[in-house]
TrEMBL record, chains A, B:
Name of the protein described by the UniProt record: Glutathione S-transferase
Chain coiled-coil ranges: none
Keyword tags: Cytoplasm, Transferase
Organism: Urochloa decumbens
Subcellular locations according to the entry: Cytoplasm, Cytosol
One cellular-component annotation, GO: cytosol
Family: Belongs to the GST superfamily.
Keyword Transferase among UniProt keywords: yes
EC number: 2.5.1.18
Gene3D superfamilies reported for this sequence: 1.20.1050.10, Glutaredoxin
GO molecular function: glutathione transferase activity
Length: 235, 235
């Protein structure tokens, strides 16, 4: 149930309620790894939610929830910001508040926007066998990919001008890069053809230790999506 | 088209693209008023979007957009955070980052959550004449109101322990207090009966100068909602 990882000083009271395959939980694990913060991971059963999850996130009952000293922080992006603020001596995801408010606002916009990948993705893969992909769903996904690609603008990471800076938007969006193969097989959208820069960013993320350790491979994601699909559509 | 308001030093290059009745734009105007920041307001026609809006928010084409020195910041809550960071000598909405990361994370959660009021509200009022309110829609709205009421926990404002502190969640949620009458008339939900504390908070917000100047009265909201409803359902 619980995997205990070696911890940086001061982080031994971090507990993460999560589900390994949840891209929102993956954001948090990636951020914790980037910061070198240790934590106890407590895998949740969303089909039979436990007391700790219900108490920690009474409003949504969702993962991820980060407990720090017993106090729950909910919502993946709020947790990322919290980690920057509560552990200021760790590598920051966002630029410091005083240095570049505009870059911070921009990163917040794009991190939030990356959720669209998951929302649009579902419209591509949650279909009965033989059912056509809606043209609007495909068009919307292409628009989302292109918008992200334009924001990346050929940089190595979204993190900013600084060379090789993996930041807030990267941590937020990296889990979805492992779904690109699913978009291709289920929705007929080749990210490599539509947005080569974004596809290269995804491959770069996949090679990064913080991501590789915390995200399923694209093949595994596709396989799990098929299982989930059968389960949902078969009910 | 443009209303110019007197400005605090350093804010003369703020331009707000908005629509007076948009609760998301109202959040930003309330925050600007709380901070004493002047700005030029440029009302937008969402039925015929102008070039400035399209260029400033190419992804969503929505209001509000705040232009600061010509650079666009999009998404109401990102704008609120930006104002705290770009104008650090003005009264903060959130506690400073170093002082209370937990309170900041919690405020982010609840500010985001307050959007549920608008989403649930629409399910109450966007109905044909004679069409029943769905019981699930009513139940969900009551749950949302109760969750906010529990978070308020009898305080004067959401802003925090500090007496009378109007903060980030208040600025985010105050525009929806003017919709409580619409929830009552359209959805049969009396906020005063369900959640007297939250209703009193709403009345307190309505009396606050920053809110009163930037939000329609509850009667006016109800009237505009009826017009909008006829227009949408009549199409």
């Amino acid at each position: 149930m619980a995997a205990v990882e070696s911890g940086a000083a001061g982080s031994s009271d971090l507990v993460l309620l999560d589900v390994f395959g949840s891209p929102y939980a993956q954001r948090v694990r990636i951020a914790l790894a980037e910061k070198g913060l240790g934590y106890e991971r407590v895998e949740q059963d969303l089909a039979a939610k436990g007391d700790l999850l219900r108490r920690s996130n009474p409003v949504h009952g969702k993962v991820p929830v980060l407990l720090h000293g017993g106090r729950p922080i909910c919502e993946s992006l709020a947790i990322l910001e919290y980690l920057d603020e509560a552990f200021p001596s760790t590598p920051p995801l966002l630029p410091p508040p005083a240095s570049d408010p505009y870059a911070r606002a921009r990163a917040r916009f794009w991190a939030e926007y990356s959720d669209r990948l998951h929302v649009c993705g579902k419209r591509l893969w949650l279909r009965h066998d033989g059912e056509e992909v809606e043209p609007e769903a495909r068009a919307e996904m292409v628009a989302v990919l292109r918008a992200l690609d334009a924001e990346l603008a050929g940089k190595e990471f979204f993190g900013g001008e600084e060379e090789g800076k993996f930041g807030y938007v990267d941590a937020a969006a990296a889990p979805f890069a492992a779904w690109f193969l699913t978009y291709e097989r289920s929705g007929g959208i080749s990210v490599a053809e539509e947005c080569p820069g974004l596809a290269a960013w995804g491959a770069r993320c996949a090679r990064r230790e913080s991501v590789a350790a915390n995200v399923y491979t694209p093949e595994k994601v596709y396989e799990l999506v098929q299982e989930y699909r059968q389960w949902v559509l078969g009910r």
